[in-house]
């Protein structure tokens, strides 16, 4: 379980971090979407939280707006979702319809090349 506080302090039992998206061994088409979206390198929260998501760990992340939280769970979940299975594999909750739409748009853009 990872917790990222708004003041950038991290309480975690996960010690592995990455400096680049390439270190995450992501699907080629997912990387294409990440770089196409404009991400150059992982933000602080992405460096710490994408890998545990990929490994099936529960992640709780709290950080300031614009810190990369949405990208974190979009990238982590798109990496592990099996597109051949027509069943729910991820559930993202949002407090407002507007935020839910923004999250959907990030999923659609980053996941555009996945087939």
TrEMBL record:
* Location of the Helicase ATP-binding domain: 50-115
Reactions performed catalytically: ATP + H2O = ADP + phosphate + H(+)
Motif Q motif extends across 19-47
Question: InterPro entries attached here?
Answer: DEAD/DEAH_box_helicase_dom (IPR011545), Helicase_ATP-bd (IPR014001), P-loop_NTPase (IPR027417), RNA_helicase_DEAD_Q_motif (IPR014014)
User: Listed GO molecular functions?
Assistant: ATP binding; hydrolase activity; RNA binding; RNA helicase activity
The record's keywords, sorted A to Z, are: ATP-binding, Helicase, Hydrolase, Nucleotide-binding, RNA-binding
Q: Which Pfam families match?
A: DEAD
Q: Which domain of life is it from?
A: Eukaryota
Q: Pinpoint the DEAD-box RNA helicase Q domain residues.
A: 19-47
SUPFAM superfamilies reported for this sequence: P-loop containing nucleoside triphosphate hydrolases
What is this enzyme's class at the first EC digit?
A: hydrolase
Report the domain remarks: The Q motif is unique to and characteristic of the DEAD box family of RNA helicases and controls ATP binding and hydrolysis.
Role description: RNA helicase.
What family, per the record? Belongs to the DEAD box helicase family.
Question: Would you tell me the protein name for this molecule?
Answer: ATP-dependent RNA helicase
State the species of origin: Strombidium inclinatum
């Amino acid at each position: 379980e990872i917790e990222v506080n708004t003041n950038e302090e991290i309480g975690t039992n996960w010690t592995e971090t990455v400096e680049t998206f390439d270190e995450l061994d992501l699907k080629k088409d997912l990387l294409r979407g990440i770089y196409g979206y404009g991400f150059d390198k992982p933000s602080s929260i992405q460096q710490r939280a994408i890998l545990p998501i990929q490994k099936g760990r529960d992640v709780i992340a709290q950080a300031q707006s614009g810190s990369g939280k949405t990208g974190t769970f979009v990238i982590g979940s798109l990496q592990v979702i099996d597109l051949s299975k027509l069943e729910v594999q991820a559930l993202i909750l949002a407090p407002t319809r507007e935020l839910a739409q923004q999250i959907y748009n990030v999923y659609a853009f980053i996941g555009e090349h996945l087939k």
